[in-house]
Amino acid sequence: MSSSTFILLLLSFQLFSSISQAVVPASQTFTYVNEGDFGDYIVEYDANYRALPPFNNPFQLCFYNTTPNAFTLALRMGTVRSESLMRWVWEANRGNPVRENATLTFGTDGNLVLADADGRVVWQTNTANKGVVGFQVLPTGNMVLHDGKGNYLWQSFDSPTDTLLVGQTLRAGGPNKLVSRLSEVSNVDGPYNTDEGFLYYLTFEYFTTNPTSSSNRNMALSRYNNTLSYLRLGIDGNLRFYTYNPNVQGVAWELVYTFLDRDSMEGECQLPGRCGNFGLCEDSQCVACPTPNGLSGWSKDCDVKKVASCKASDFGYYKLGGVDHFMIKYTRGDQTKQSDCESKCTKDCKCMGYFYHTDNSRCWIAYDLKTLTRVGNSTHLAYIKTPNK
Ligand SMILES: *[C@@H]1O[C@H](CO)[C@@H](O)[C@H](O)[C@H]1NC(C)=O
Ligand SMILES: *[C@@H]1O[C@H](CO)[C@@H](O)[C@H](O)[C@H]1NC(C)=O
Ligand SMILES: *[C@@H]1O[C@H](CO)[C@@H](O)[C@H](O)[C@H]1NC(C)=O
């Protein structure tokens, strides 16, 4: 071995050892076991929960479950004193619950690890030996792992599920969407997600990257310091903004904004689930069920006929005039000939139909239909896939 190689090895060894010297002091490490009695207070989803020591008023780390022995590690917002429903504003392991005796461990290596009772790692921050020296729950509800200089090497604000707290952002190249939960009981991903928006106090700003556009909505001003607020993509696909006033008893939460409601610019027709699996909506009302034979009276059971085959000869399309898909307002669609739009849908087994604006040759392929919106413009067409028999 030449001496220069030796020096290089020595140097890299020293470099390595100086990084690994940044360890979490033993007094800061912890292992919390998911065991013991459940808490007494009323929390969202009618869950059972166990509060863990990490706490910064009004945020507390907990395990909660809505079905027996299937726990989510989550951050809860709310104080005991306000006597109001406490809400789950961040969670680690949606869709991948842990059981009794699961552990949350923060070791000297700086990794925060959620492991099931059998040791299976369910979730982790992947920050082992990266210079983490401490863990904190900040007053904003951001849970962070920081290095010796106070830089965040991991933060919960970078992994939202369905909720954004004040100061938390969605951005291209970073955390870029919210996904609703499936139901009150079932904490797995639901059908709705929002991409790339960000939040400042009571202004919700959102933009799209393709095409580039941006817009914002000023939400109602609340009567009090609204730093303790959150934006939630709900189970129904609607966005709602809540503020929290810990000094008000019983009604500490105020719903200050609903993205899609009767009084909003869009109206309820923009809510994907407003008229069930497949209904036509006009002025916030469900007015009809589209069928291959025309419109019939609306009921909540309206649905599309399933196309079981991917073979083009097994299905066709029926046309609806003066309707839009709920996504059309927020996306530009592709500029193509109608025949190309149709063949794109025909070749795509998952495509349930396509939407076409004849005045500007815009095409949208739809993977779900749900609520169609009645529009006054007869150049807005929908072609719904239907089995040939
Ligand atoms: C959890 O662990 C404790 C201690 O090892 C044990 O006594 C208990 O039975 C375990 N609980 C469950 C539900 O497995
Ligand atoms: C609002 O509340 C936050 C958190 O409690 C606090 O840091 C901030 O100073 C408050 N702002 C005002 C204007 O009182
Ligand atoms: C239909 O929409 C186009 C643009 O998409 C617009 O120029 C036209 O005025 C609309 N027609 C009606 C009747 O609203």
Put the structure in a nutshell.
Keywords: Disulfide bond, Glycoprotein, Signal. With 389 residues, this protein is mainly β.
Overall description:
With 389 residues, this protein is mainly beta. 7% of the residues lie in helices and 40% in strands. The chain has 2 helices and 30 strands. The chain has helices at 3-20, 338-347, and strands at 30-33, 48-56, 59-65, 71-77, 87-91, 103-106, 112-115, 121-124, 134-137, 143-146, 152-155, 163-165, 177-181, 189-195, 197-200, 203-209, 212-218, 229-233, 239-244, 253-258, 278-282, 285-291, 294-296, 315-321, 323-324, 334-335, 353-357, 362-366, 370-374, 380-387. The strands form 8 sheets. It has a 5-stranded mixed sheet with strand order 23-22-21-29-25, with no helix packed on it. The longest helix has 18 residues, at 3-20. It is elongated. The termini are far apart. Mean pLDDT is 86; it is low at 1-18 and 196-202.
Topology:
Elements lengths: L2 H18 L9 E4 L14 E9 L2 E7 L5 E7 L9 E5 L11 E4 L5 E4 L5 E4 L9 E4 L5 E4 L5 E4 L7 E3 L11 E5 L7 E7 L1 E4 L2 E7 L2 E7 L10 E5 L5 E6 L8 E6 L19 E5 L2 E7 L2 E3 L18 E7 L1 E2 L9 E2 L2 H10 L5 E5 L4 E5 L3 E5 L5 E8 L2
The site of one 2-acetamido-2-deoxy-beta-D-glucopyranose has 5 residues, from loops.
